[in-house]
Amino acid sequence: MLDLFGKAILDYQTQNAPEPLITATSISDEDEMDVAYLFRPYDLMPKMEQKALQLAFGKVLDVGCGAGSHALTLQNDRNLDVIAIDLSKNAIETCTLRGVKKCVAIDILKFEMTDKFDTILLLMNGTGIFENLKRTAVYLQKLKSLLAIGGQILIDSSDLIYMYDEDEDGGAWIPSTNYYGELTFTIKYKGQTESPFPWLYMDYNTLQNAAFANGLQCELILEGDHFDYLAKLTHQ
């Protein structure tokens, strides 16, 4: 694993000639992403992320923390006890450099804690880490095992139905072989290309059904302007 996403984040933090990330998916062409976006302060975050941070309480786990912007807001502005985790060692090094007090480079499926969390955050398409629909139950059960009674999982995603062409009847042409939100993601940075990896976007109804099937309640908190949403999962 080249960890190009993390390398771009660390380059930006250390002023090591950062360049834009080039991202592409199995249903979209290459697009440039300015790494500075991952370092945005609270007042420049989208309303959906701001809402999630407002709702956070108690002991918090920030899953897929990236450059640590959400964790820093909760730690410094809300004085909450936050642990930030990410697969990327470079991202976690960046979090440490930025002042995140507790951060660990680890896969969520391997993460263990005796104490449970009151809030678990999965933001910037939090369902992405689920990989595909078939694996969703594995991740939801893991998250549920880390959640305190009365706790909440705040997660966002988008319904990608708008990405597919309409057929003659006005309906969307979508693949019949797999769920239309199951994508393959590719990242390029400074002339290197990461191996493609699975990334899942879930429409709200599909997330709700998956949550119920895994013993979690699901509530729609906020809908965005472009098929995106924020949801809250709680113990049944």
Describe this structure in words.
The protein is 26% helix and 31% strand. The chain is α/β, with parallel strands linked by helices. The mean pLDDT is 94. The longest helix is centred in the middle third of the chain and has 14 residues, at 133-146. α1 runs parallel beside α4. The chain has a single domain, classed as 3-Layer(aba) Sandwich (Rossmann fold), CATH 3.40.50.150.
SSE arrangement:
Blueprint: H1 4-13, E1 21-25, E2 28-33, H2 47-55, E3 59-63, H3 69-77, E4 81-86, H4 89-98, E5 103-105, E6 117-122, H5 133-146, E7 147-158, E8 182-189, E9 192-193, E10 197-200, H6 204-213, E11 216-223, E12 228-235
Helix pairs in contact: 1-4
CATH architecture: 3-Layer(aba) Sandwich
Give the tally of β-strands. Answer: 12
Strand content: 25-35%
Low-confidence stretches: none
Note the total helix count. Answer: 6
Fraction of residues in helix: 25-40%
Order of helices and strands: HEEHEHEHEEHEEEEHEE
Mean pLDDT: 94
Cα-to-Cα separation, first versus last residue: 38 Å
Summing up helix and strand content along with how strands pair, one would put the structural category as alpha/beta
Shape: globular
Main pleated sheet: 7 strands, mixed
CA radius of gyration: 18 Å
Could you say how many structural domains there are in total? Answer: 1
CATH superfamily caption: Vaccinia Virus protein VP39
The CATH topology turns out to be: Rossmann fold
Instruction: Give the neighbour order of strands across the main sheet.
Output: 5-4-3-6-7-12-11
CATH class term? Alpha Beta
